[in-house]
Structures are given as C-alpha cells and as structure tokens.
Amino acid sequence: xxxxxxxxxxxxxxxxxxxxxxxxVAHANFGTRFTYYVNRMHLQKEIGLKLPLSSCLTEAKRPxxxxxxxxxxxxxxxxxxxxxxxxxxQQQPHDHMPPKKKSIDQxxxxxxxxxxxxxxxxxxxxxxxxxxxVKKEKEEExxxxxxxxMGKALLGGDWTxxxxxxxxxxxxxxxxxxxxxxxxFTNCPDICPEEIEKIVRVINQTDADKDLPEIxxxxxxxxxxxxxxxxxKEYCGEFSPRLLGFTGTVEEITAATRAYxxxxxxxxxxxxxxxxxxxSIISYLVNPHGEFVDYFGQNKTSAEIYKSIxxxxxxxxxxxxKRG
Length: 324
Description:
The chain is α+β, with helices and mostly antiparallel strands and about 325 residues long. It is about 55% helix and about 15% strand.
C-alpha cells in the first residue's frame, strides 16, 4: 500500500529530526535536543499534526540522560508509527470509497451527459432541416415568380405585317382591344381549317355575350411564299368576315413567330412544287395592353376557350379598376 503525501511529509520531518541532524556526543545536550525535536507542540505548529501523548521522549530519554541507541531506535519507530496511524485514520473515509462508484458519482454530477448531447444534437438537426425546408420553399416561390415574369416578358411582342387588304399594319394599332392570334397557312389540309373553325365558334360566343368586349380574331401565315394578301382574303372569307389575315416577308414572319415562340418548318417540295409546312398548333390571347395572357392548344374545345377568355377578361378589368 502506498503512503499518502501528508504521511511522507511527516516521515521526512521525522527523518530530518532524528536521522540527518547529528546528535551531540555530550550526554547532557542529547536529552534537551531530542526533547525539542519530538515535542508534540512543535510538530503541530510546523505541519499541523497533533501527536498522541505517548511520546518518543519517554522511550528514548533515560533518567540519567545517557545515550541509549536502542531507545532512540524505538523512539524513531514510535514516531513514524504514530504519524502513520494519525493519517491513516484521517484518510480512512476516502480510502474505502469504491473507484467505480466515484467515477459514476462524478458522471452524475457532470453538467453535460450523453443524453443531453443527443437531445441537443437532435434539436439542432431538426432546426437545420426546418430552416432548409423554409429556404427551399422561398426559393421555389421566387423561382415561380421569376418564371411567371419571364413568361410575360419573353412571350409575345410587337410586329408589323400586311393584312389581307394589302394594308401595312402594326400590332400597336390593336391596343385597347382583345385579340386572338392563330399561326397557320392556307394550304393546310386539315388541322388549320379545324382550328380556325374552332376560333370562329369562340368569337361567335363572345360576340353574343354582352358582358364581354369585342375580340379580334387574327390569322398570321407561316407560309409567306404562297400566302399573298389575296390568297389570305379568300381563305379568311370562307370562315368569317370577322377574321383578319396577315402576311409579310420571310424575315417579318420569322420575327413574329419568334415573338410568340412558334415553330414552323417547310417540308420538301414534290414534283408539283407543293409542300406542307409543319408548325405549332396554338392560339394566343392578347390583352388591350398588347400583353400575352394565355394560350390554347389543339386539345382545348371552343367551350373551354370561351370560359377561359371570359375569366381572363373579368380578372383584367377588376385589376384595372383597382389601379384606378
């Protein structure tokens, strides 16, 4: 068993007092010097140790004051034993404490435990996930808003073409009224006639609705090489007198189709120089400000287009009224 630090200190003191300091040969001085070093009051003052009353002095000092080596040896043993018993008694409660229990007690007294760390980590992870979801939602909203704004800005635009009366006209002349534009060509065998007939039915419905303003139906050709103003006039007249056809140079038609993102491509010519033009089958609704509002594909019926147009026109005038 190892000796405690206080016990070693006392042993050093005792060793210094009894061994390292040479005793005087004179028997008369020995008793006085020994009495001083083992005096219990002196040890209590120097190191705070209170020795028992059974002193080394009684054992080592003869009444005659003569030198007694055996007595001095026993006195040394008694001094060291007394110090050992004193400190062993003082440290007994600490020596009987189990190490494992002590470590457990210390872990219990610790302000941070593994459970606390796990809870904090879980809360931190949940907070991070929540912040990520909120950020993602905001990014989606911004993306949708930007897409909507870009759609309005990138689809539609001004154009200048020649109508089927031979007059040069600009899209700006139609400011203040609603227009419904379809891109096709007069030599189209089936799809274009079907779509134009559908547009005419929609216009007939809107004209009959007193709550709706007049809508101008327009056909812009994607075959400027063959669709002259005269050809367009004859073609449009077959469907409705309200229908207005436009043509122009290849460059002018290309600019108009690009504004509305319309695809068209002329196919190879046969032996009669006849060909088919492949193109998008879409109609575009434009408001009085010349802004694109909505589009209608081939799958939309005339009734669906009519309801959609009526809703857009109603919303438009409500917004205009709020603007003042």
